Task: inverse folding
Protein backbone atom coordinates (compact mmCIF):
# COMPACT_ATOMS: atom_id res chain seq x y z
CA UNK A 1 0.00 0.00 0.00
CA UNK A 2 1.41 3.36 -1.03
CA UNK A 3 2.18 5.82 1.73
CA UNK A 4 -0.15 8.74 2.22
CA UNK A 5 1.06 12.15 1.20
CA UNK A 6 0.72 15.17 3.47
CA UNK A 7 -2.05 16.45 1.17
CA UNK A 8 -3.95 13.18 1.39
CA UNK A 9 -3.65 13.12 5.14
CA UNK A 10 -4.79 16.73 5.35
CA UNK A 11 -7.89 15.94 3.28
CA UNK A 12 -8.66 12.87 5.39
CA UNK A 13 -8.53 15.03 8.53
CA UNK A 14 -11.00 17.46 7.00
CA UNK A 15 -13.36 14.59 6.21
CA UNK A 16 -13.07 13.22 9.74
CA UNK A 17 -14.01 16.67 11.03
CA UNK A 18 -17.19 16.64 8.94
CA UNK A 19 -16.10 18.88 6.06
CA UNK A 20 -17.85 17.90 2.82
CA UNK A 21 -16.75 20.74 0.54
CA UNK A 22 -13.59 22.77 0.04
CA UNK A 23 -14.31 26.07 -1.70
CA UNK A 24 -11.54 27.72 -3.68
CA UNK A 25 -9.75 28.45 -6.93
CA UNK A 26 -7.16 25.96 -8.17
CA UNK A 27 -3.50 26.91 -8.47
CA UNK A 28 -0.14 25.17 -8.75
CA UNK A 29 0.70 25.20 -5.05
CA UNK A 30 -2.73 23.69 -4.33
CA UNK A 31 -2.44 20.92 -6.90
CA UNK A 32 -1.50 18.12 -4.47
CA UNK A 33 -4.49 18.96 -2.25
CA UNK A 34 -6.96 19.33 -5.11
CA UNK A 35 -5.81 16.03 -6.57
CA UNK A 36 -6.23 14.35 -3.19
CA UNK A 37 -9.82 15.65 -3.12
CA UNK A 38 -10.39 14.34 -6.66
CA UNK A 39 -9.57 10.85 -5.40
CA UNK A 40 -11.62 11.09 -2.19
CA UNK A 41 -15.35 10.48 -2.65
CA UNK A 42 -16.22 11.92 0.77
CA UNK A 43 -15.38 15.52 -0.11
CA UNK A 44 -15.91 17.82 -3.11
CA UNK A 45 -13.84 20.61 -4.57
CA UNK A 46 -16.10 23.62 -5.25
CA UNK A 47 -14.61 25.92 -7.86
CA UNK A 48 -15.70 29.51 -7.29
CA UNK A 49 -14.61 32.48 -9.42
CA UNK A 50 -12.94 34.48 -6.66
CA UNK A 51 -11.33 33.29 -3.44
CA UNK A 52 -13.15 35.95 -1.42
CA UNK A 53 -16.37 34.19 -2.44
CA UNK A 54 -14.89 30.89 -1.26
CA UNK A 55 -14.43 32.27 2.24
CA UNK A 56 -17.90 33.82 2.29
CA UNK A 57 -19.46 30.54 1.11
CA UNK A 58 -17.64 28.53 3.77
CA UNK A 59 -18.62 31.08 6.40
CA UNK A 60 -22.27 30.80 5.39
CA UNK A 61 -22.15 27.02 5.69
CA UNK A 62 -20.63 27.29 9.13
CA UNK A 63 -23.16 29.89 10.31
CA UNK A 64 -26.10 27.80 9.16
CA UNK A 65 -24.89 24.49 10.60
CA UNK A 66 -22.58 25.47 13.46
CA UNK A 67 -20.17 22.90 12.05
CA UNK A 68 -16.74 23.24 10.46
CA UNK A 69 -16.52 24.43 6.86
CA UNK A 70 -13.42 25.00 4.75
CA UNK A 71 -11.94 27.08 1.94
CA UNK A 72 -8.58 27.28 0.20
CA UNK A 73 -6.41 29.64 -1.80
CA UNK A 74 -3.22 29.12 -3.77
CA UNK A 75 0.07 30.81 -2.89
CA UNK A 76 0.43 34.57 -2.70
CA UNK A 77 -2.44 36.45 -4.36
CA UNK A 78 -4.72 33.40 -4.27
CA UNK A 79 -4.87 32.98 -0.53
CA UNK A 80 -4.66 36.73 0.01
CA UNK A 81 -8.07 37.03 -1.69
CA UNK A 82 -9.56 34.92 1.12
CA UNK A 83 -8.93 37.55 3.75
CA UNK A 84 -12.12 39.61 3.56
CA UNK A 85 -14.42 36.60 3.74
CA UNK A 86 -12.33 35.18 6.57
CA UNK A 87 -12.64 38.41 8.54
CA UNK A 88 -16.39 38.13 8.13
CA UNK A 89 -16.48 34.48 9.22
CA UNK A 90 -14.24 35.18 12.21
CA UNK A 91 -16.30 38.13 13.40
CA UNK A 92 -19.46 36.05 12.93
CA UNK A 93 -17.97 33.28 15.11
CA UNK A 94 -18.31 30.83 12.21
CA UNK A 95 -15.96 27.82 12.48
CA UNK A 96 -13.95 27.88 9.25
CA UNK A 97 -10.63 26.26 8.37
CA UNK A 98 -8.72 28.06 5.63
CA UNK A 99 -5.91 26.37 3.73
CA UNK A 100 -3.43 28.96 2.50
CA UNK A 101 -1.06 27.12 0.21
CA UNK A 102 2.43 28.57 -0.01
CA UNK A 103 5.42 28.93 -2.29
CA UNK A 104 8.09 26.17 -2.24
CA UNK A 105 9.45 25.87 1.27
CA UNK A 106 13.06 26.32 0.18
CA UNK A 107 12.21 29.73 -1.31
CA UNK A 108 10.45 31.27 1.69
CA UNK A 109 12.19 34.48 2.64
CA UNK A 110 13.89 35.00 -0.72
CA UNK A 111 11.41 37.39 -2.33
CA UNK A 112 10.26 34.56 -4.59
CA UNK A 113 7.52 34.93 -7.22
CA UNK A 114 4.13 35.44 -5.50
CA UNK A 115 5.71 35.28 -2.06
CA UNK A 116 3.65 36.48 0.89
CA UNK A 117 3.67 35.28 4.46
CA UNK A 118 0.20 33.84 5.15
CA UNK A 119 1.20 32.69 8.62
CA UNK A 120 1.48 36.41 9.45
CA UNK A 121 -1.19 37.89 7.19
CA UNK A 122 -4.15 36.09 8.71
CA UNK A 123 -3.32 36.40 12.40
CA UNK A 124 -5.79 39.20 13.07
CA UNK A 125 -8.73 37.30 11.55
CA UNK A 126 -8.07 33.89 13.12
CA UNK A 127 -7.73 32.09 16.43
CA UNK A 128 -4.92 29.95 15.05
CA UNK A 129 -2.57 30.56 12.14
CA UNK A 130 0.46 28.33 11.56
CA UNK A 131 2.87 27.24 8.83
CA UNK A 132 3.58 23.58 8.14
CA UNK A 133 7.26 23.62 7.23
CA UNK A 134 7.88 19.89 7.67
CA UNK A 135 5.81 16.71 7.19
CA UNK A 136 6.61 15.86 10.80
CA UNK A 137 4.15 18.57 11.87
CA UNK A 138 1.35 16.42 10.49
CA UNK A 139 -1.30 15.69 11.61
CA UNK A 140 -0.95 17.86 14.71
CA UNK A 141 -1.17 21.26 13.05
CA UNK A 142 -4.44 20.73 11.15
CA UNK A 143 -5.95 18.91 14.12
CA UNK A 144 -5.04 21.80 16.39
CA UNK A 145 -6.42 24.26 13.85
CA UNK A 146 -9.74 22.42 13.80
CA UNK A 147 -9.95 22.38 17.59
CA UNK A 148 -9.42 26.15 17.67
CA UNK A 149 -11.98 26.90 14.96
CA UNK A 150 -14.71 24.79 16.54
CA UNK A 151 -13.84 25.27 20.19
CA UNK A 152 -13.43 29.04 20.09
CA UNK A 153 -15.83 29.77 17.25
CA UNK A 154 -14.03 31.43 14.36
CA UNK A 155 -11.31 30.97 11.78
CA UNK A 156 -8.14 28.87 11.76
CA UNK A 157 -5.58 29.12 8.98
CA UNK A 158 -3.01 26.52 7.94
CA UNK A 159 -0.27 27.63 5.55
CA UNK A 160 1.07 24.68 3.53
CA UNK A 161 3.83 24.91 0.89
CA UNK A 162 3.01 22.93 -2.23
CA UNK A 163 6.20 20.88 -2.07
CA UNK A 164 5.50 19.85 1.54
CA UNK A 165 1.95 18.86 0.56
CA UNK A 166 3.35 16.43 -2.03
CA UNK A 167 5.75 14.72 0.39
CA UNK A 168 4.99 11.46 2.22
CA UNK A 169 3.20 11.88 5.52
CA UNK A 170 5.15 10.63 8.56
CA UNK A 171 4.72 7.00 9.52
CA UNK A 172 2.76 6.11 12.64
CA UNK A 173 1.58 9.69 12.96
CA UNK A 174 -0.56 10.22 16.03
CA UNK A 175 -4.15 11.08 15.25
CA UNK A 176 -6.57 11.87 18.01
CA UNK A 177 -10.32 12.26 18.30
CA UNK A 178 -11.42 15.61 16.94
CA UNK A 179 -13.74 18.01 18.69
CA UNK A 180 -16.64 18.61 16.31
CA UNK A 181 -19.12 20.43 18.58
CA UNK A 182 -18.95 23.07 21.29
CA UNK A 183 -20.13 22.38 24.83
CA UNK A 184 -22.57 24.54 26.75
CA UNK A 185 -21.04 26.76 29.43
CA UNK A 186 -22.82 27.07 32.75
CA UNK A 187 -21.97 29.95 35.08
CA UNK A 188 -20.93 29.13 38.61
CA UNK A 189 -23.41 29.14 41.47
CA UNK A 190 -21.90 32.36 42.85
CA UNK A 191 -22.65 34.25 39.63
CA UNK A 192 -26.15 32.77 39.35
CA UNK A 193 -26.96 33.75 42.94
CA UNK A 194 -25.60 37.27 42.43
CA UNK A 195 -27.66 37.67 39.27
CA UNK A 196 -30.79 36.39 41.01
CA UNK A 197 -30.35 39.00 43.77
CA UNK A 198 -30.01 41.79 41.23
CA UNK A 199 -33.14 40.67 39.40
CA UNK A 200 -35.16 40.47 42.61
CA UNK A 201 -34.00 43.92 43.70
CA UNK A 202 -34.91 45.60 40.39
CA UNK A 203 -38.29 47.21 39.72
CA UNK A 204 -38.11 47.51 35.91
CA UNK A 205 -36.19 44.85 33.98
CA UNK A 206 -35.52 44.88 30.23
CA UNK A 207 -33.91 42.17 28.12
CA UNK A 208 -31.83 42.95 25.04
CA UNK A 209 -30.98 39.89 22.97
CA UNK A 210 -28.39 39.09 20.31
CA UNK A 211 -27.29 36.09 18.28
CA UNK A 212 -26.18 34.34 21.46
CA UNK A 213 -29.84 33.60 22.17
CA UNK A 214 -29.86 31.04 19.33
CA UNK A 215 -31.50 27.93 20.74
CA UNK A 216 -32.68 29.80 23.85
CA UNK A 217 -36.02 31.17 22.65
CA UNK A 218 -38.11 29.17 25.12
CA UNK A 219 -35.84 30.06 28.04
CA UNK A 220 -35.92 33.79 27.21
CA UNK A 221 -39.71 33.74 26.95
CA UNK A 222 -40.07 31.86 30.26
CA UNK A 223 -37.80 34.34 32.03
CA UNK A 224 -39.56 37.36 30.51
CA UNK A 225 -42.90 35.98 31.66
CA UNK A 226 -41.63 35.38 35.18
CA UNK A 227 -40.22 38.90 35.66
CA UNK A 228 -42.63 40.70 33.27
CA UNK A 229 -39.91 42.28 31.17
CA UNK A 230 -40.02 43.71 27.64
CA UNK A 231 -37.70 41.99 25.16
CA UNK A 232 -35.76 43.92 22.52
CA UNK A 233 -33.15 42.64 20.12
CA UNK A 234 -30.17 43.56 18.00
CA UNK A 235 -30.15 42.83 14.27
CA UNK A 236 -28.40 39.46 14.70
CA UNK A 237 -30.86 38.49 17.42
CA UNK A 238 -33.96 39.12 15.30
CA UNK A 239 -34.24 35.66 13.76
CA UNK A 240 -33.85 33.93 17.12
CA UNK A 241 -36.01 35.96 19.44
CA UNK A 242 -38.71 37.97 17.67
CA UNK A 243 -41.09 35.21 16.61
CA UNK A 244 -43.77 33.95 19.04
CA UNK A 245 -42.74 36.72 21.42
CA UNK A 246 -45.55 38.44 23.38
CA UNK A 247 -42.94 40.70 25.03
CA UNK A 248 -41.42 42.04 21.81
CA UNK A 249 -40.59 45.74 21.69
CA UNK A 250 -38.56 45.75 18.49
CA UNK A 251 -34.97 46.43 17.59
CA UNK A 252 -32.50 48.97 18.89
CA UNK A 253 -29.68 50.60 16.97
CA UNK A 254 -29.75 53.05 14.08
CA UNK A 255 -31.66 50.51 11.98
CA UNK A 256 -34.08 49.98 14.81
CA UNK A 257 -37.81 50.50 15.26
CA UNK A 258 -40.45 50.34 17.93
CA UNK A 259 -39.83 50.81 21.66
CA UNK A 260 -36.61 48.85 22.15
CA UNK A 261 -34.65 52.02 22.82
CA UNK A 262 -37.18 53.28 25.36
CA UNK A 263 -37.33 49.91 27.13
CA UNK A 264 -33.58 49.65 27.49
CA UNK A 265 -33.25 53.24 28.68
CA UNK A 266 -36.21 53.43 31.08
CA UNK A 267 -35.44 50.22 32.97
CA UNK A 268 -33.39 50.06 36.14
CA UNK A 269 -31.83 46.69 35.21
CA UNK A 270 -30.79 45.94 31.64
CA UNK A 271 -29.83 42.36 30.84
CA UNK A 272 -27.72 41.95 27.71
CA UNK A 273 -28.19 38.36 26.59
CA UNK A 274 -25.77 36.95 24.03
CA UNK A 275 -25.10 40.27 22.33
CA UNK A 276 -21.92 42.16 21.58
CA UNK A 277 -24.01 45.17 20.49
CA UNK A 278 -21.36 47.75 19.51
CA UNK A 279 -23.29 51.01 19.78
CA UNK A 280 -23.00 51.99 23.42
CA UNK A 281 -24.69 55.33 22.76
CA UNK A 282 -27.97 53.40 22.64
CA UNK A 283 -27.36 51.87 26.07
CA UNK A 284 -28.49 53.56 29.31
CA UNK A 285 -26.24 55.71 31.45
CA UNK A 286 -27.97 55.28 34.79
CA UNK A 287 -29.35 51.72 34.86
CA UNK A 288 -27.57 48.69 36.20
CA UNK A 289 -26.31 46.47 33.38
CA UNK A 290 -25.72 42.71 33.40
CA UNK A 291 -24.19 40.92 30.44
CA UNK A 292 -24.40 37.18 29.80
CA UNK A 293 -22.10 35.85 27.08
CA UNK A 294 -20.38 32.61 26.22
CA UNK A 295 -17.33 34.59 25.03
CA UNK A 296 -15.66 36.11 28.11
CA UNK A 297 -13.74 38.62 25.99
CA UNK A 298 -17.09 40.21 25.04
CA UNK A 299 -18.01 40.97 28.64
CA UNK A 300 -17.82 44.65 29.45
CA UNK A 301 -16.09 45.82 26.31
CA UNK A 302 -19.05 48.00 25.23
CA UNK A 303 -20.36 49.37 28.52
CA UNK A 304 -19.62 49.44 32.22
CA UNK A 305 -21.13 46.31 33.79
CA UNK A 306 -22.49 45.81 37.26
CA UNK A 307 -22.23 42.04 36.77
CA UNK A 308 -20.48 39.97 34.10
CA UNK A 309 -21.75 36.42 33.64
CA UNK A 310 -19.69 34.00 31.59
CA UNK A 311 -22.07 31.40 30.27
CA UNK A 312 -24.39 30.16 27.60
CA UNK A 313 -27.67 32.12 27.60
CA UNK A 314 -29.87 29.02 27.60
CA UNK A 315 -28.06 27.34 30.47
CA UNK A 316 -27.82 30.58 32.43
CA UNK A 317 -31.57 31.21 32.21
CA UNK A 318 -32.37 27.59 33.01
CA UNK A 319 -30.47 28.02 36.25
CA UNK A 320 -31.66 31.57 36.95
CA UNK A 321 -35.40 31.50 36.28
CA UNK A 322 -36.41 29.18 39.17
CA UNK A 323 -34.34 31.29 41.60
CA UNK A 324 -36.05 34.64 40.96
CA UNK A 325 -39.43 35.65 42.36
CA UNK A 326 -42.39 35.50 40.01
CA UNK A 327 -44.02 38.89 39.45
CA UNK A 328 -47.53 40.04 38.75
CA UNK A 329 -46.81 43.75 38.19
CA UNK A 330 -46.93 44.31 34.42
CA UNK A 331 -46.95 48.11 34.43
CA UNK A 332 -43.51 48.60 32.89
CA UNK A 333 -44.02 45.80 30.36
CA UNK A 334 -47.45 47.05 29.33
CA UNK A 335 -46.21 50.63 29.01
CA UNK A 336 -43.48 49.47 26.62
CA UNK A 337 -45.85 47.27 24.61
CA UNK A 338 -48.16 50.27 24.14
CA UNK A 339 -45.27 52.50 23.08
CA UNK A 340 -44.10 49.84 20.67
CA UNK A 341 -47.49 49.46 19.02
CA UNK A 342 -47.93 53.24 18.78
CA UNK A 343 -44.50 53.65 17.20
CA UNK A 344 -45.20 51.00 14.58
CA UNK A 345 -48.71 52.25 13.82
CA UNK A 346 -47.25 55.64 12.97
CA UNK A 347 -44.88 54.41 10.29
CA UNK A 348 -46.05 51.02 9.12
CA UNK A 349 -47.62 52.22 5.89
CA UNK A 350 -45.18 54.99 5.11
CA UNK A 351 -43.77 53.19 2.09
CA UNK A 352 -46.08 50.26 1.41
CA UNK A 353 -49.44 52.02 1.13
CA UNK A 354 -50.79 52.96 -2.31
CA UNK A 355 -47.49 52.23 -4.04
CA UNK A 356 -48.78 49.81 -6.68
CA UNK A 357 -48.58 52.55 -9.32
CA UNK A 358 -45.55 54.49 -8.10
CA UNK A 359 -42.30 54.35 -10.02
CA UNK A 360 -39.45 53.95 -9.44
CA UNK A 361 -40.49 51.13 -7.14
CA UNK A 362 -40.05 51.74 -3.44
CA UNK A 363 -37.55 49.20 -2.05
CA UNK A 364 -39.67 48.84 1.08
CA UNK A 365 -42.49 47.57 -1.09
CA UNK A 366 -40.14 45.05 -2.71
CA UNK A 367 -39.05 43.73 0.68
CA UNK A 368 -42.65 43.52 1.86
CA UNK A 369 -43.78 41.51 -1.18
CA UNK A 370 -40.67 39.32 -0.96
CA UNK A 371 -41.55 38.50 2.64
CA UNK A 372 -45.00 37.42 1.46
CA UNK A 373 -43.78 35.24 -1.40
CA UNK A 374 -40.69 33.59 0.08
CA UNK A 375 -40.88 30.11 1.58
CA UNK A 376 -41.56 29.61 5.27
CA UNK A 377 -38.16 27.97 5.68
CA UNK A 378 -36.20 30.21 3.29
CA UNK A 379 -32.60 31.21 3.92
CA UNK A 380 -32.04 34.90 3.21
CA UNK A 381 -28.55 36.25 2.61
CA UNK A 382 -28.48 40.02 2.85
CA UNK A 383 -26.06 42.48 1.30
CA UNK A 384 -24.61 45.17 3.52
CA UNK A 385 -26.06 48.65 3.13
CA UNK A 386 -29.69 49.64 2.69
CA UNK A 387 -30.65 45.98 2.26
CA UNK A 388 -29.87 45.56 5.96
CA UNK A 389 -32.60 48.09 6.65
CA UNK A 390 -35.16 46.36 4.45
CA UNK A 391 -34.34 42.93 5.91
CA UNK A 392 -34.54 44.24 9.47
CA UNK A 393 -37.90 45.90 8.85
CA UNK A 394 -39.69 43.53 6.51
CA UNK A 395 -38.47 39.94 6.82
CA UNK A 396 -40.69 38.09 9.25
CA UNK A 397 -38.93 35.51 11.43
CA UNK A 398 -40.81 32.34 12.33
CA UNK A 399 -38.23 29.99 13.85
CA UNK A 400 -37.62 28.22 10.54
CA UNK A 401 -36.29 30.99 8.33
CA UNK A 402 -32.66 32.02 8.53
CA UNK A 403 -31.19 35.46 7.84
CA UNK A 404 -27.44 35.87 7.51
CA UNK A 405 -25.29 38.71 6.29
CA UNK A 406 -22.10 40.57 7.01
CA UNK A 407 -23.77 42.07 10.05
CA UNK A 408 -20.60 42.44 12.13
CA UNK A 409 -17.85 42.90 9.56
CA UNK A 410 -20.04 45.01 7.27
CA UNK A 411 -18.53 43.94 3.95
CA UNK A 412 -20.05 44.67 0.57
CA UNK A 413 -20.80 41.81 -1.84
CA UNK A 414 -21.50 39.14 0.79
CA UNK A 415 -25.02 38.07 -0.22
CA UNK A 416 -24.33 36.17 -3.44
CA UNK A 417 -21.33 34.12 -2.24
CA UNK A 418 -23.04 33.37 1.06
CA UNK A 419 -26.02 32.12 -0.95
CA UNK A 420 -23.66 29.75 -2.76
CA UNK A 421 -22.62 28.14 0.53
CA UNK A 422 -26.18 28.06 1.84
CA UNK A 423 -27.52 26.37 -1.29
CA UNK A 424 -24.82 23.69 -1.35
CA UNK A 425 -26.02 22.61 2.08
CA UNK A 426 -29.50 21.86 0.76
CA UNK A 427 -30.44 22.18 -2.90
CA UNK A 428 -34.14 21.74 -2.06
CA UNK A 429 -34.32 24.61 0.42
CA UNK A 430 -35.13 28.05 -0.96
CA UNK A 431 -32.16 30.41 -0.75
CA UNK A 432 -32.76 34.10 -1.53
CA UNK A 433 -29.93 36.59 -1.94
CA UNK A 434 -31.12 40.12 -1.19
CA UNK A 435 -28.48 41.91 -3.23
CA UNK A 436 -27.73 45.54 -3.91
CA UNK A 437 -26.45 46.53 -7.33
CA UNK A 438 -23.14 47.64 -5.83
CA UNK A 439 -22.67 44.38 -3.96
CA UNK A 440 -23.70 42.18 -6.86
CA UNK A 441 -21.36 43.98 -9.28
CA UNK A 442 -18.40 43.52 -6.95
CA UNK A 443 -18.49 39.70 -7.01
CA UNK A 444 -20.69 39.19 -10.05
CA UNK A 445 -18.53 36.33 -11.27
CA UNK A 446 -20.30 34.07 -8.80
CA UNK A 447 -23.32 34.13 -11.10
CA UNK A 448 -21.19 31.77 -13.16
CA UNK A 449 -20.72 29.55 -10.11
CA UNK A 450 -24.49 29.28 -9.73
CA UNK A 451 -24.84 28.28 -13.38
CA UNK A 452 -21.88 25.87 -13.35
CA UNK A 453 -23.25 23.91 -10.39
CA UNK A 454 -26.93 24.48 -11.25
CA UNK A 455 -27.57 25.98 -7.83
CA UNK A 456 -31.18 27.22 -7.62
CA UNK A 457 -30.31 30.44 -5.76
CA UNK A 458 -32.81 33.27 -6.28
CA UNK A 459 -31.25 36.73 -6.42
CA UNK A 460 -33.60 39.62 -5.70
CA UNK A 461 -31.67 42.68 -6.81
CA UNK A 462 -32.52 46.05 -5.28
CA UNK A 463 -31.24 48.05 -8.24
CA UNK A 464 -31.14 51.75 -7.36
CA UNK A 465 -27.97 52.56 -9.37
CA UNK A 466 -26.26 53.93 -6.28
CA UNK A 467 -24.42 53.06 -3.11
CA UNK A 468 -27.40 54.07 -1.00
CA UNK A 469 -25.99 53.59 2.49
CA UNK A 470 -22.86 55.52 1.59
CA UNK A 471 -25.04 58.38 0.37
CA UNK A 472 -26.83 58.33 3.71
CA UNK A 473 -23.52 58.40 5.55
CA UNK A 474 -22.44 61.43 3.55
CA UNK A 475 -25.75 63.19 4.16
CA UNK A 476 -25.70 62.72 7.93
CA UNK A 477 -22.16 64.09 7.93
CA UNK A 478 -23.28 67.20 6.08
CA UNK A 479 -21.51 66.21 2.87
CA UNK A 480 -22.95 66.14 -0.65
CA UNK A 481 -23.24 62.68 -2.18
CA UNK A 482 -20.23 62.09 -4.42
CA UNK A 483 -18.88 59.00 -6.15
CA UNK A 484 -21.91 56.92 -5.23
CA UNK A 485 -23.67 56.58 -8.58
CA UNK A 486 -23.52 53.37 -10.63
CA UNK A 487 -24.11 53.12 -14.35
CA UNK A 488 -25.75 49.72 -14.43
CA UNK A 489 -26.55 47.25 -17.19
CA UNK A 490 -29.77 45.33 -17.48
CA UNK A 491 -28.82 42.72 -14.88
CA UNK A 492 -31.65 40.41 -15.93
CA UNK A 493 -30.32 40.32 -19.49
CA UNK A 494 -26.85 39.71 -18.11
CA UNK A 495 -28.16 36.77 -16.07
CA UNK A 496 -29.83 35.35 -19.16
CA UNK A 497 -26.58 35.73 -21.10
CA UNK A 498 -24.67 33.52 -18.65
CA UNK A 499 -27.38 30.84 -18.53
CA UNK A 500 -29.56 31.86 -15.57
CA UNK A 501 -33.20 32.93 -15.56
CA UNK A 502 -33.57 36.71 -15.55
CA UNK A 503 -36.50 39.08 -15.31
CA UNK A 504 -36.46 42.87 -14.99
CA UNK A 505 -39.17 44.68 -13.04
CA UNK A 506 -39.81 48.40 -13.51
CA UNK A 507 -43.48 48.60 -12.47
CA UNK A 508 -44.84 47.63 -9.04
CA UNK A 509 -47.75 45.69 -10.54
CA UNK A 510 -45.28 43.27 -12.16
CA UNK A 511 -43.29 42.55 -9.00
CA UNK A 512 -45.28 39.75 -7.40
CA UNK A 513 -45.60 37.79 -10.63
CA UNK A 514 -41.88 38.16 -11.34
CA UNK A 515 -40.96 36.81 -7.91
CA UNK A 516 -43.31 33.87 -8.29
CA UNK A 517 -41.93 32.94 -11.69
CA UNK A 518 -38.36 33.15 -10.39
CA UNK A 519 -39.20 31.01 -7.35
CA UNK A 520 -40.86 28.40 -9.59
CA UNK A 521 -37.79 28.21 -11.83
CA UNK A 522 -35.72 25.12 -11.03
CA UNK A 523 -32.33 26.74 -11.55
CA UNK A 524 -30.61 30.02 -10.62
CA UNK A 525 -32.72 33.13 -11.17
CA UNK A 526 -32.25 36.88 -10.89
CA UNK A 527 -35.06 39.39 -10.44
CA UNK A 528 -33.70 42.85 -11.31
CA UNK A 529 -36.02 45.32 -9.55
CA UNK A 530 -35.43 48.96 -10.48
CA UNK A 531 -35.91 50.79 -7.17
CA UNK A 532 -36.10 54.41 -6.12
CA UNK A 533 -32.59 55.79 -5.44
CA UNK A 534 -34.10 58.49 -3.21
CA UNK A 535 -35.67 55.98 -0.82
CA UNK A 536 -33.13 56.45 1.95
CA UNK A 537 -34.05 55.69 5.53
CA UNK A 538 -33.17 59.05 7.02
CA UNK A 539 -33.55 59.90 10.71
CA UNK A 540 -36.34 62.39 11.34
CA UNK A 541 -33.79 64.97 12.47
CA UNK A 542 -30.31 65.30 11.01
CA UNK A 543 -27.83 66.78 13.43
CA UNK A 544 -24.20 67.70 13.10
CA UNK A 545 -23.35 65.25 15.86
CA UNK A 546 -24.26 62.35 13.59
CA UNK A 547 -21.23 60.64 12.12
CA UNK A 548 -20.63 58.16 9.34
CA UNK A 549 -21.55 54.50 9.42
CA UNK A 550 -24.10 53.37 11.97
CA UNK A 551 -23.21 55.88 14.66
CA UNK A 552 -25.98 57.50 16.66
CA UNK A 553 -27.13 61.09 16.65
CA UNK A 554 -27.19 62.98 19.93
CA UNK A 555 -30.99 62.82 19.84
CA UNK A 556 -30.86 58.99 19.90
CA UNK A 557 -33.54 58.73 17.21
CA UNK A 558 -34.15 55.72 14.99
CA UNK A 559 -34.77 55.57 11.28
CA UNK A 560 -38.14 56.32 9.79
CA UNK A 561 -39.86 53.76 7.62
CA UNK A 562 -42.33 50.92 7.56
CA UNK A 563 -42.00 47.71 9.49
CA UNK A 564 -44.05 45.20 7.54
CA UNK A 565 -45.87 42.45 9.43
CA UNK A 566 -44.29 43.47 12.71
CA UNK A 567 -47.18 45.85 13.30
CA UNK A 568 -49.51 42.86 13.33
CA UNK A 569 -47.33 41.20 15.96
CA UNK A 570 -47.38 44.39 18.02
CA UNK A 571 -51.16 44.60 17.75
CA UNK A 572 -51.46 40.97 18.83
CA UNK A 573 -49.19 41.52 21.83
CA UNK A 574 -51.12 44.64 22.77
CA UNK A 575 -54.18 42.45 23.35
CA UNK A 576 -52.36 41.07 26.39
CA UNK A 577 -52.33 44.51 28.01
CA UNK A 578 -55.20 44.81 30.52
CA UNK A 579 -57.70 47.56 29.70
CA UNK A 580 -58.46 50.07 32.48
Result:
Amino acid sequence: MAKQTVAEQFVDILVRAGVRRLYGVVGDSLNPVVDAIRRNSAIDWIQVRHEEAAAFAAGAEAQLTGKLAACAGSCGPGNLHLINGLYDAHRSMAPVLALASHIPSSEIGSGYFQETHPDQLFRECSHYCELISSPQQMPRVPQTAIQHAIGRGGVSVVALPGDIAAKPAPERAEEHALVTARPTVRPGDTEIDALARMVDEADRIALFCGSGTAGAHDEVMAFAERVKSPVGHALRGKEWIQFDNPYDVGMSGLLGYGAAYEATNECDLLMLLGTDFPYNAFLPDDAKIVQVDVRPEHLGRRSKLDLAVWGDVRETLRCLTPKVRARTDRRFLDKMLKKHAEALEGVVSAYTRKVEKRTPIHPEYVASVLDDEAAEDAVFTVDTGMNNVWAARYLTPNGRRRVIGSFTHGSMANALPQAVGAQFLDRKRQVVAMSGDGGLAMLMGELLTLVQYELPVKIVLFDNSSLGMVELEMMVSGLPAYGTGNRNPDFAALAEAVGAYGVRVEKPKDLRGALRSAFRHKGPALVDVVTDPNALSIPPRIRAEMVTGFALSASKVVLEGGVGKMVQMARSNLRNVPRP
Observations:
- The radius of gyration is 25 Å.
- The chain is about 35% helix and 15% strand.
